[in-house]
Amino acid sequence: MAERPTEPAPLLSWWGWGDPAEVPELPEAVTELLRGALGVTRAPAPRPALAELSPPPPRIADGAAARLAEVVGAEHARADAATRIRHTRGKSTPDLLALRAGDASAAPDLVVFPATHDEVLRTLAICAEARVAAVPFGGGTSVVGGLAPPDAGVYAGLVAIDLRRMDALLELDEVSRLAVLEPGLRGPQAEALLGAHGYTIGHFPQSFEYASLGGFAAARSSGQASAGYGRFDELALGLRVATPAGTVNVGRAPRSAAGPDLRQLFLGSEGALGVITALTVQVHPSPAQRSYEGWRFPDFATGTAGLRALAQDGPRPTVLRLSDEAETALNLARPSELGRAGAGGGGGAGGALAIVGFEGSVARVARDQVEASAVLREHGGAPEPEAGDHWAGDRFRGPYLRDALLDHGVLVETLETVAFWSKLDGLYAAVGSALRSELERRGTPPVILCHVSHVYPAGASLYFTVGCAAAADPIAQWRAAKAVASDAIIAAGGSISHHHGVGSDHRAWYGEELGALGAGVLRAVKAELDPVGVLNPGILIPGPAE
Amino acid sequence: MAERPTEPAPLLSWWGWGDPAEVPELPEAVTELLRGALGVTRAPAPRPALAELSPPPPRIADGAAARLAEVVGAEHARADAATRIRHTRGKSTPDLLALRAGDASAAPDLVVFPATHDEVLRTLAICAEARVAAVPFGGGTSVVGGLAPPDAGVYAGLVAIDLRRMDALLELDEVSRLAVLEPGLRGPQAEALLGAHGYTIGHFPQSFEYASLGGFAAARSSGQASAGYGRFDELALGLRVATPAGTVNVGRAPRSAAGPDLRQLFLGSEGALGVITALTVQVHPSPAQRSYEGWRFPDFATGTAGLRALAQDGPRPTVLRLSDEAETALNLARPSELGRAGAGGGGGAGGALAIVGFEGSVARVARDQVEASAVLREHGGAPEPEAGDHWAGDRFRGPYLRDALLDHGVLVETLETVAFWSKLDGLYAAVGSALRSELERRGTPPVILCHVSHVYPAGASLYFTVGCAAAADPIAQWRAAKAVASDAIIAAGGSISHHHGVGSDHRAWYGEELGALGAGVLRAVKAELDPVGVLNPGILIPGPAE
Questions:
Q1: Residue B514, min C-alpha distance to chain A (Å)
Q2: B157 with B133: CB under 8 angstroms?
Q3: Angle of helix B474-491 relative to helix B421-441, nearest 10 degrees?
Q4: For residue B59, what is the DSSP state?
Q5: Which pLDDT tens digit goes with each residue over B236-250?
Q6: In this complex, do B261 and A267 lie within 8 Å of one another by their Cβ atoms?
């Protein structure tokens, strides 16, 4: 079987998120509020036009470029400016700020679109031989600098390997509930192909509409329904990986005691160890029922205890998240409270809003709702009508709001972390406080929102959204804030990423997590699979000196 | 905190399992049946006496031995024959046959008992410097040749690093439900320490009474209650590992997207990559209720479908296993049916017996029992009174029966595998058929029993027990049978081990699973952590030529 999407992968805005037509117009009341609350003084900046940007002259030697074109077919090897710019950087705020400022210096020299595993293998072999750096490119939605290798400058050029042509559903094993899928499929494409057979993966990260399956695996993505369906690294039971040294297949069984689990080396490998060319993914019957409830707690701490009770003793909802007081105020459209609420900033009158979602059979959803309600009430929760549906309707919209705010001179960015439950309070306070003091010191006091986005029996993730007036150099401004936040995460015992990944932005802190010997292990693995070091140089893997 | 067991770790029989006093006397009716059904003709062999065995002369240079004794203290470095023999090999049937035959050639030259992480680090550094092979030794219960490194002969001696003195509960985080435990703790010791605080790990493999926590992690153990509590590799969220190259700490959070999961390299590393010196383990409140039910299905295939329904759609019991017709006949004491039932041998009138266990709160157990009963009845199951309690009472007794049968000239051994559901029928038939034809060809037709021992949404494990008359060279007889079974496992798409591990016995087939490049990755990791290659040489990691 080889079923393919009827619609091609959608085009992703090169200067922002998704479809530019979806970026909302901010009402005058909001922009005035921004001026008041954040002290935004800059006039809205116009968005750039594609033709205004000039990527640098291509550096790949003609011979190597010709050989690459031969592998994928001339029409699938493109070096035009528009294609190169559309493969430049990812979707972090610094990425967008750079492109909005006309900086296309990180553009790949060539973009190839292989159609098969064998084409990927041959592409990598040519890159290794010609010392051309190679960036595997899925949906292009990295928010941690995963698509602009900082060390690529020493190579004889940079190729982006766009996997969109590898978009088939190759197998569906209904007995084991496993689908073999190609990496270029976007979230909705994969869901449509599987939905026609009555199945879902159940993986819905905020980037769902544009991100690819290969990216989900390579970045250890976690979807909004992770409490019910699991993280993508739990769902991707098998991987086929093309590397400069050949092919690796991992994942022969649901679980095994046959040695270390090498699948776990490629999950989270972010294109630095190989290119994922097929995934065996656990699928689930499409749920008959979906129901999302809002629950309001007196404050974030109380709500966190309620979520922990469900995560540890059940029933486990499919979706489970909790906004702090500041984010709740925004969600409930009480922006007047934003200034005094939130991470490290005290409570808000609106309390803390949780979203508790259930998917499954009608009977199971009904039963779990009743049981979970009892637990949530015990922990001080009260139903908040319509908040669940409101969340579900807007669940993929956040990035568009960022585009609108960037237009108006507001710096907005997110970061996330994860820790064991006993460290969560300290982590929440430390990250909020670090961000607040750094941005206040720079004269741009921020609004900081936070939510618990994913829960486990042993801990949970925290997802922060930061907004402040953009300074003259907003990239430097954010890098400084991000650095103190990352230091705070490590010091408070958190991991530098729960689901965004490492990329280049987190590499130094990831090195601290790994320790010198752990980093040495990763470098040894890389040297075995990619001896020349052409795959995403400078992404993920800490250098010996870091 | 550093709470330690009040009782020392129990002594494990060096020629068999556990406490020799527990080995049952076989009734005359059974031994006669063995003669009839299996054609056993050999007279019962006497068990050997410890004093009859002579380990080879110690090979470690005096200087290195003295330095090792200095690290751990002279009283904790022992080279007497009894100590050496008690650290010789593991508990596979070939291991026991060798020791029963007086073969102590695999004995370590020295046994050290370090008390701290630092002592382990220093021990490994001395071993690397002196080129002395080192075997980390937990409970000594390996059944895959994990404790007698076949390649140790080229080294300047062999040291067993017995971790029994590292037996503390170091921390208990009741908010995150995490315990930090030392690796030398035996299963019951850890349960007693945690039980005093109201917690359980919930990990009860058949080796539970003697195996150690470090071994559970190093061999990716899976307990009988894995459906409810998870496998040990899911429970061990953090590890501290001592290697010849230094210390690695893995597991900072319940889950993370910070790169590849290096924890998964040390889980299943079987002492070949380092010595686990502390574990952070997920614990659960001690269940208020435990209930084990028996369910009888018309046949193994029907029962398997019932288990799959529970594994995929719930409710998920805590314990879930299913014997095939032959094993059911034995469990229900209908040995007359043994000859004609079982793997590849057709059905038995007793059907297929499942054990379905529930642990948790009284209310949850009651509810899940009702719901699971409905699913099991839908799949043709009917309650089998008392079978659940019978199973629970005997759950750790299997290995003693093997000792009694070995006494009587019966070769008994087990092997296990795991695959996706869609491959399970073929795997079951192929392994049974391979074992049967090889042992029939050798003139010792076997009885083959099998059960599904662990279930997952995507697949399940199969656990085979094989019995036949012991030939003149029973080790060669079993190696031949095991080889064809292992070939059949790989050919049928199974993994070479679900929970026993790789050791030296499975290494060649593990190499087939890994592929050349995967094996190269493992060797690269090993070279980074253990550059001299002193850790368990010849265990786990396939050589370049294999």
A1: 7
A2: yes
A3: 150
A4: -
A5: 999 999 999 999 999
A6: yes
Between A46 and B263, the more confident residue is B263
Q: What is the ipTM of this complex?
A: 0.96
Query: Which sign does the torsion angle of CA B28, B29, B31, B32 carry?
Result: positive
Phi and psi dihedrals of A130, rounded to 5? -95, 5
- Which residues face B412 on adjacent strands? B467
What is the bridge-based pairing of β-strands B275-282 and B236-243? Answer: antiparallel
pLDDT of residue B348: 55
For B464, residues 6+ apart whose C-beta sits below 8 A from its C-beta are B343, B414, B415, B416, B431, B432, B435, B448, B449, B450, B485
User: Are B256 and A522 a contacting pair at CB < 8 A?
Assistant: no
Q: How many residues does chain B have?
A: 546
Determine the distance in angstroms separating the CA of B188 from the nearest CA of chain A, rounded to an integer: 22
Give which of A395, A262, A372 is closest to A306, Cα–Cα: A372
Pick the residue of A256, A415, A422 with the most B CBs within 10 A to test the interface with B by mutation: A256
A510 is written with which tokens? Answer: 């990831």
DSSP symbols for B277-332: EEEEEE-EEPPSEEEEEEEEESSHHHHHHHHHHHHHHS---SEEEEE-HHHHHHHT
Nearest residue on chain A to B246, judged by CA atoms?
A517
Residue found under tokens 């998964």: B264
Q: Which amino acid is at B174?
A: E
Choose among B169, B215, B141, B186: nearest CA to B9: B186
Of B327, B469, B496, B390, nearest in space to B31 by CA = B469
CA atoms within 13 A on the CB side of A213: 36
**What predicted TM-score, i.e. pTM, was given to this entire model?**
0.96
Retrieve residue A22's tokens: 């979806």
**B interface test, pick of A206, A229, A521 with most B CB neighbours within 10 Å:** A521
Residue of B nearest to A280 (CA): B458
pLDDT, tens digit, for every residue of B238-295? 999 999 999 999 999 999 999 999 999 999 999 999 999 999 999 999 999 999 999 9
CA distance A196 to A209: 18
CB contact under 8 A, B177 and A457: yes
Tokens in use for B1?
Answer: 């905190």
Q: Which amino acid is at A45?
A: A
Residue A213 CA, distance from chain mean position: 12
Q: What is the DSSP string of B456-487?
A: -SSEEEEEEEEEEE--SSHHHHHHHHHHHHHH
Q: With contact defined as beta carbons under 8 Å apart, do A359 and A225 qualify? A: yes
Residue % of chain A over a pLDDT of 90: 90
* Rounded Cα gap, residues A123 and A205, in angstroms: 30
Say how many CA atoms lie within 13 Å of B376 toward its Cβ.
30
Q: Which of A221, A260, A268 sits opposite B265 (nearest CB)?
A: A260
Q: What is the three-class DSSP state of A359?
A: strand
Contact B522 A262 (CB under 8 A): yes
Question: Do A242 and A120 contact (CB within 8 A), yes or no?
Answer: yes
> Taking residues A330-356, what's their average pLDDT?
65
| B269, B458, B495: residue with CB nearest A260 | B269
Angle among Cα A134, A140, A143 to the nearest 5 degrees reads 105
User: How much helix, strand and coil, in percent to the nearest 5, is found in chain A?
Assistant: 40, 20, 40
pLDDT over 70 for what percent of chain A? 97
Are the C-beta atoms of residues B257 and A143 closer than 8 Å to each other? no
Query: Nearest chain A Cα to B273, which residue?
Result: A260
Cα gap A448→A38, rounded to integer Å: 11
Contact A521 B500 (CB under 8 A): no
